[in-house]
Amino acid sequence: TSLNNGVDVAVRALFADSVDNKLYVAGEFINADNKPARNIASWDGLIWDSLAGGMQGGGPALSLTRYNNSIYVGGYFRYSYSNGIRKITNGLARWNGNSWDSVGSAFHPSGGPWQMIQDNGMLYLAGSFDSVGTFFSQSIVEFDGTNYIPIGIPGTYGNGRGASACVFYNNELYLGGNFRDSTISIYDFAKWNNSQWINLCTSMGCGYIDAMAEYQNEIYFSGIYFVGPGQHIMKFDGSNFSSVGGDLDWRALKLKVFNNLLFAVGGFDTAGGLPASKIAYW
Predict the structure, then answer these.
(1) CA distances from 269 to 39, 251, 261 (A)
(2) Contacts of 7 (CB under 8 A, 6+ apart)
(3) CA 20 to 30 Å from 56, out of 93, 179, 217, 228?
(4) How would you label 241-272 residue by residue, b for 16+ Cβ within 10 Å and e otherwise?
(5) In terms of pTM, does the model score above 0.90?
(6) Nearest CA to 223 among 235, 238, 237, 240?
(7) Tens digits of residue pLDDT in 100-131
């Protein structure tokens, strides 16, 4: 079922907000229902709203969540607009229901978070940055609503492309993507034990991770260039990597658990050897 005239270019993130019963969408579009809506809009079941003007400059919006009574959006943009008033937001902005505000320091060099998750009242921001403001925190940073706390991969940007996905599993933070520390001893898949990063990428499981999700007490992760029991999707139980139903023939860009099923969406055409045009569930 179409949502009126939809949006005119790609959507990169969706967030169904149970507080105000709206669906927030973010991406590369400039119109929603043929009306101006820069990179972000909301749908209330009947009409699209441009959220006072949205984002502009640099690139698309990539992530969405609700945190501390505001909607947060992250991505490659540089500015937000609130009814014609431009604010410098540098890759991360928050919506209070009426206008946009910046969220502290700028992400450097290429943009804000690709994914945002919450745990114990903290917001974790993962993406393709090496620093926030004046301190280094490669690929991921912690946020308490006011201050950023550096917990990033050791080293500086240039050793890798950054983090694409993060998830909490057994009370530890797991990070996936295409990152490197300065000695290449921590790369692509690692966990944070609240004091240091532990590398998990071995000869079984290395590759560029696009998405992760916890499902039935295991971490499922998808991407490309995996070396192990799967090439594009695998699962990890905290110790071992395993295959998932015969693999996908290309990368899945998002994983989502819904109604006790694990959904994958991306560029694949088969899943477990069966026809699956860009979407399948496990």
Answers:
(1) 28, 10, 19
(2) 25, 27, 29, 31, 32, 37, 41
(3) 179
(4) beebeebbebbbbbbeeeeeebbbbbebeebe
(5) yes
(6) 235
(7) 998 988 888 767 899 999 999 999 999 989 88
